[in-house]
Amino acid sequence: MRFKREESKMTDVKEIKPDICKICGKIIPSNERATVYDGYFICFDCEEHRSISSNALDEEFVSKQTESVDSNQNIGPKGISGWLIIPAINFLCAPIYAILGLLLSIGMIQDFAPQLTNSPQMWLISIIDAAMIIATIVVAFFFFKKKKIAVRLIICLFSASIFVNLIEVPLISSIFNETSISSVARSCVFGAVWIPYFLKSKRVKNTFIE
């Protein structure tokens, strides 16, 4: 029980008869200083313990208030919804689309241009594409698990996609004698939109916390 201390009611035990401590039931000796709260005696030990407990309760209250403030700061959009739906769909569809595209390309080369199977450029393109497919699947795993590291991996993946397209344009040009920068432009636009989003979005910060 917590008592309200009133200095006006505090008296010396010498001025009143010894009595029993209201808290512990201990008989208070006549030579021991005691405190009186609302007409009840409190022995020195209980008074000291009450003060310590009061401080502990105050510290616990401050700690809970701090936790409450921290939790309030995290209030906001959370979960794979809103604008995060677009990257989620991309992570679901992109690996399937890339695998099908890679298999289709290999089949067409074997049927219509078998001489390209010995081309180092074609092998390099295939290896790069396979590596990007594996990387996308790994990043998608961390994305849907809502891992904190997923944000860094996504930014690295989008940056790598731009770099890979810049490498593949001259390789494809050397094989088919034609140049197309549509894939580079697409990856640049995608990265320019989503990299800042994953760096600044409150939904991202509240979602990827595990």
List strands and helices in order, with pairings.
Layout: E1 35-37, E2 40-42, H1 44-73, H2 85-112, H3 120-144, H4 150-176, H5 182-200, H6 202-207
Antiparallel strand pairs: 1-2
How is this structure best described in words?
This protein is mostly helical and 210 residues long. It has 2 domains: 7-73, no CATH class; 82-207. It is 64% helix and 3% strand. It is built from 6 helices and 2 strands, in the order E-E-H-H-H-H-H-H. It has helices at residues 44-73, 85-112, 120-144, 150-176, 182-200, 202-207, and strands at 35-37, 40-42. Strands 1-2 form a two-stranded antiparallel ribbon. Strand 1 (35-37) and strand 2 form a beta hairpin. The longest helix has 30 residues, at 44-73. It is rod-shaped. The two termini are 41 Å apart. The model is unreliable at 1-16 and 52-58 (pLDDT under 50).
Largest sheet: 2 strands, antiparallel
Rg from Cα: 36 Å
| Mean pLDDT over the full residue set | 78
What count of helical segments does DSSP give? Answer: 6
Q: Helix/strand/pairing class, anyone? A: mainly alpha
Summed up, the domain count is 2
Strand arrangement in the largest pleated sheet:
1-2
Question: Can you write the helix and strand succession as a string?
Answer: EEHHHHHH
- Poorly predicted tracts of residues: 1-16, 52-58
Determine the strand fraction and express it as a percent band: under 5%
Helix coverage percent: 55-70%
Distance between the termini: 41 Å
Count of extended strands: 2
Oligomer: single chain
Net shape = rod-shaped
